[in-house]
Amino acid sequence: MQSKKTYGDVEFIFEKSQNFEGCILLNGWHGIGECGFISMSHLVENLGLERIGFIITKNLPQFISIKNEQITFPFEIYRKDNLVVILPIFEPIKSEHLLFTKTIVEWSIEEKFQQAILIGGLDKRLQDEHAVKGIYTRSFKSSDSTSAIPVLDEGLYVTGPLAYMLMFYELNQFPALALLPYAERSRPDPVAASVAIEQINLLLGIEIDTEGLLKEAEKIEKEIESLIQASKPTRDRDKDSDQGMFV
Asked: With CB atoms 3.0 to 4.6 Å apart as the test, which of 14, 37, 126, 192 could cross-link to 181 if both were Cys?
């Protein structure tokens, strides 16, 4: 039986009632190198997560496609056991970034998720000896797995939906971690996404294959470019100020 939860102009629709208490939320966006989207898509495919629901907004991107003979929605929710993925096939329009991300945070806290792991990307031109950096909310408990992930350098900035989610998780004293692999800014970067996947494996004690991701790199890049081209007519065309050291 279908269930719904409405938060103002944002609606969560599930094919059947769900209990998310103790679950881990994973989410990635279309940032530098498309790392978040690529890594989440690969996680869904590799672990065989089931699509359980959708997020509907007031200004829902007007695009659908077909995958596995099913209609795809702009914002989908997948699950397997205690792993839950919010997969934004398209990003919400900029005017909805604040409301959309704030609502996801409120929903995940209300549903008693255990923690959130978010994926972004860093400009590869700024890379040091590390392949990935991290940002932790104060409530995120450090472990042997996270201790090897250095914190993002001071003077660098996070922007977009990922920044909002980190803000609201911090304000609500909720355990959240953002993984930020260094990526090519000018194109989709499956190699950087594989770095994020490797860190997720260490954090959660699971085994998501990355070899297939690297082998399919060229195909993935073409698919992402197709999504980007498809969404261009409806994207906010305001020039971003994130031309420097941003996620």
From this structure: 192
CATH for 160: 3.40.50.10900
Domain of residue 17 covers: 3-231
Return d(Cα 55, Cα 5) in angstroms, integer. 10
Does some domain include residue 56? Answer: yes
The 10s digit of each residue's pLDDT in 170-202 is 999 999 999 999 999 888 899 999 999 999 999
Cite the beta strand spans of the chain per DSSP E. Answer: 3-7, 10-14, 24-28, 50-56, 65-67, 70-72, 75-80, 83-88, 115-119, 122-123, 132-136, 176-183
**Residue 118 included in any domain:** yes
Q: What is the pTM of this model?
A: 0.87
Please name the residue ranges forming H helices in 160-216: 161-171, 190-204, 211-215
How far apart are alpha carbons 96 and 28 in whole angstroms? 17
Q: Find out whether 182 and 218 touch, Cβ atoms under 8 Å.
A: no
